[in-house]
Amino acid sequence: MSKCVCLIVDDEPAVRTYLSLLLEKHGMQTLQAANAVDALRIIQGWDGQIDLLISDIYMPGDMSGIELANWVKTSFPKLPVILVSGFTDRPPSGFNFVPKPFTCDAILKAIDKVMTKSCSQGG
Question: Mind listing the domains of the chain with CATH numbers?
Fold first, then answer.
């Protein structure tokens, strides 16, 4: 079995790096995008399957994380989405949400909740 692939979308490089290191430690391959438009380019151009999308809600640019999540929900309904944000007290309905700052355990529990396949440790 191949590694699961997670696309991490956040305008903060430290958050992307933190999540990438955490998920790679747990057997996932990660891709990174600094905004929703870059994430769309990656999704549309990736030669393979993306198994999980973790996106910040609020990012600079022409598209928010919620707009990205809604596009994914329509275009790839089986692709699990986790939204994260430090600036909302009302989680978006229809999506899994983890408030920032989050702990390793909190994000890993959210991933376990939405993933339908297990990730292998070896590629």
Answer: 4-114 (3.40.50.2300)
